[in-house]
Amino acid sequence: MNNAFQKAEPILQTLHRNGYQAYFVGGAVRDFLIGRPTGDIDIATSAKPEQVQELFEKVIPVGIEHGTVMVRYDEESYEVTTFRTEGDYHDYRHPDHVHFVKDIYEDISRRDFTMNAIAMGIDGELIDPYDGLNAITKGEIETVGKPDDRFEEDPLRMMRALRFVSQLGFTLSSTTYQAIQQHAPLLENIAVERLSIEFEKLIQGHHASKAWPLFIHSNTDQHLPVFKEEPSLMRYCATKKWRALGDFAEALCIFHLFEPTFPIEYWVKEWKLSNKIKRKASLLVSSYNEWHVGNELWTIYKLGFELLSPFVRISNLMRAKDEIDIKTAKKMFEALPIHRREELSINGKDIRSWFSNHPPGPWIESMLVTIERLVIEGHITNEKEILKERVLQWNPQEED
Ligand code: ATP
Ligand code: MG
């Protein structure tokens, strides 16, 4: 077992000592068996949420109604969930009800794919009733039980299947794939927020190039927000050598550059994304356009250090040939005369005081941007007296 599981062992031990069963389950077990870095470790137990709460000092009741509490231990967080099965998903959001069950086998039977339906005990022993280990060895994604039933029950699982293709580079078993072809329209019933979470993970996968053709051939893209309005969009995605992206914002930038008919705001609204994603995507799009009209220094400055890597990722994905590497971008940024507005030797107050007879307004901001840009592009030096002289050349009356 690796360090992450060893670190979590005391939680299983505490549960065992108190007479409960407990296992590691879900994605971390799968990733450990594949040999990938493991993400969050989830634990399934026969203890009820209240009982788990009594046993540990730091417990956060994150999803008590679904049987889950978060246990904080040794600076890590673990989701500890009572063995359960799920009822029907009538609203396609949450199961109507959750039943606690006695043993791990029943708990495992509700899980989506055989590779995700393996439990691991404290000594590393596996409980693998659906032969998930074999699926992992073959690199195959197959549902627990009949795919038709499982996708009808919760259609989100189709999107999850495709995101696992992108994350793991696995293939879909033929029955799983056929069922997706047949049930793709059910994706329209899924809450967009749930789709977005899975779709973002797909975008972050290293094998997205393997997932896009599956969307096209199963017609799944025709049941996704925005993609359904433009059949060529997913086809365009499939023509590119895709790389793992950082988040949804980076993908939005690319989708918008492919098909400018749909503004970023529209994507954000349709996929119910955050304002943070909207701001980042918009800045990446404007930066990409600025760069390609030759304003390279200004682009690098406007992006700021944090967004250099996302910019390099999207630029290289858009082009057949790498056009900029991160080392060069960072060097360019470091060589800039200033790195943020605050480093300019003048500010808005100075400009106001030099034009005290002129009422303040948006002209101050546009003056600052003009000066900022002249400095960045090396036309004037960032010294107060020099900038002042340049500012004073401006005659506000001319523009009134
Ligand atoms: P990741 O490493 O990306 O988090 P994961 O497999 O852990 O992948 P989660 O969404 O965290 O994915 O779900 C944890 C586990 O819960 C899954 O491995 C699976 O066993 C089960 N699960 C999650 N979503 C569903 C679902 N819609 N239907 C059935 N089982 C699910
Ligand atoms: Mg997980």
From TrEMBL:
<keyword id="KW-0548">Nucleotidyltransferase</keyword>
<keyword id="KW-0808">Transferase</keyword>
<protein>
    <submittedName>
        <fullName>CCA tRNA nucleotidyltransferase</fullName>
        <ecNumber>2.7.7.72</ecNumber>
    </submittedName>
</protein>
